[in-house]
Design goal:
This protein has helices at 17-28, 45-57, 83-89, 99-105, 109-121, 134-138, 142-153, 181-198, 201-206, 217-224, 241-248, and strands spanning 6-10, 38-42, 63-66, 93-96, 125-130, 163-167, 208-212, 231-234. An eight-stranded parallel β-barrel has the order 1-2-3-4-5-6-7-8, surrounded by six helices. The chain has eleven helices and eight strands. Strand 1 (6-10), helix 1 and strand 2 form a beta-alpha-beta unit. The chain binds phosphoenolpyruvate.
Amino acid sequence: MKRKPLIAGNWKMNLDAASGVALAEELCSAGIDFASRDVLVAPSFTNIYPVAEAVKEGGGKIAVAAQNMYFEDSGAFTGEVSASMIKSAGASWTILGHSERRAIFGETDADINKKVKKALSEGLSVILCAGETLWEREAGAAVETVLAQVGKGLEGVKDLKNVVVAYEPVWAIGTGRTASAADAEAMHKAIRNYVAEIRSAAAAESLRILYGGSVKPENAGELLGMDNIDGALVGGASLKAAQFLGIINFDK
Ligand code: PEP
């Protein structure tokens, strides 16, 4: 079974409210074939509301995600944002465990696991990111690293129906270097086999596993044509409508 592809744009700390809304409007009016692909954008926290309003106006087919979330409900956690706040701003997804959160902000697998559980219990769908560093890859520890991140991130999560995993090799993020389609496919297959082991064959079969790391219109078709690559998590190339649409329409 080939799963319905999901093309997700992680805008990171880019685009102000007006430019985020303008980009969302352009995507909404681009004639995307939503019957054959899902599309999601992840603006910064402050821009979730206006972007969510813009996509609602534009037909409501594009989903909105947060880029992070805190696992507590409310309280003295200055600077943090809860699942219910994200939902009330109009997002239905959150990205969790992005390598920039892990490397720059010190998020651990245990933190990420708490966030995954909280997000799901509040009704948010989750993109759980995992990926190895160049050092880990060169040391032959790529698969082990990624499977450990996936396993720990999903600890105690029985139902994976609202979970998507994104494999993002750290050395390929924002660097212009992409994993070869064959290497990415091998990792995706390893993730799927592992999920079959720790959950069930059915859960593994229906799990969408995205690839992220310098995805561009030029390489999207080859990557997304692989059996176990079910979409893309796109950073830099999601900031310009033409480029992002070139990836969204990867098989057109
Ligand atoms: C990302 O940050 O999730 C990402 C994949 O970035 P880029 O596409 O710019 O490599």
